[in-house]
Amino acid sequence: MKQCDIFLMYDESSPKISIIKQTAHSVKSSIQLLTSFTAFDENIALIDTKPNLNYLMNESSGKLSTHQLKTCTNLAIRLVSVFQALNEYPNIRVLRKNEFCRNIGVLFQKHFETTTHQEYKANVTLIIVDRSIDMLTPIVHSCKFEEFVVQELEREYNTEDATIDQLLRDVIISKVCDTLIEVSKSVQEDNKNSKQMREKQKALAKHTENVNRLSKKLKRGYVSLLTVESQILDEKKSKTEKESVIKKMLKLGHKEIEPLDVIRLLTIHAMADDPLKIRWRKLLKNKKQLNSAEKDQIVQYTQIAKQAEKLNNVSFQSLSKTPMIAKIISDFKLSSLDTEMFPVVHGNKEPRKKVFIFMVGGLSFGELQYSRFQGKVDPTVVICSDAIVTPRILFEYLFPHF
Is 90 exceeded by the pLDDT of residue 178? Predict the structure, then answer.
């Protein structure tokens, strides 16, 4: 058990804690343990049942509420359990700007030292950050199949057949239908055994269900939306060019895509320091094909876009397609992680063999891949969070009245 990273999904209202303990004593390898808890892999851990986001839009008074302090305590205690299982006492660095992160770091150190009475290894640096460091990555639309299934459809990606799963996982969504047909033909040709055929067809059926859901979304204008979004994210494009492409999208009519897609697009644009212009609001309001209820809905969209500008006040991220987690990992490995932005709470700033990043506020699918190096698990990187966050979950927290 000391040689593997352990996946812990806490749910204090259920008997899962005792089950975890029983399973941990009975399993022979990390693979068995991971299978028991259906983890993404051994280098990604979740320690809560939901992302904790209630600190995001608070006034920067520096004082945490009683509820927030309780959340900090719970997360710190769970992190300690993980590191005790790993037989590690890490250096601790936290995101300076957020009092929430600093509290978790301080509480982690106190709880570790009061509950630990043995020698531990010193191979890990724990870096505690929160969702405000990267608000862009969770809301950028997905263009690959597995990412689309998890983030857009909020469904589990099928992993019953490793060969089929791998063939479909990274396919661009516009080509998934054709690829699925090719895979189906290949399965029929290569599997004459009736039992094998049934198992393969069962796996294909689950993928087919998700592909059908994907196809419906594509027909509603999802591809056009991706095109517009790529223009907004393109740093080489001028403001005039971006205005032009957004106007063109608005003229197509918002019925082609779902409300949440529109909100995400307008939020990304607002985060680009180029908020929705008044004339665009008028363009939306005056569209002849909109009824009064739809016009009211558009007004709400623009209000949300204005609110989204506030996110720039809490986010360190400039408009970039690369998640901030990737930059933190890179800086850590180059021994250039900013000590002003990430001060040391315990230990020292000298890099250790392994980095363990804890993201408060949920991991998006786009960030999970950064526990890997060239497609393989990177043994020097562990990414941990309270839970997985999707665009819908994020916006429900940010704009609860919508």
Answer: yes
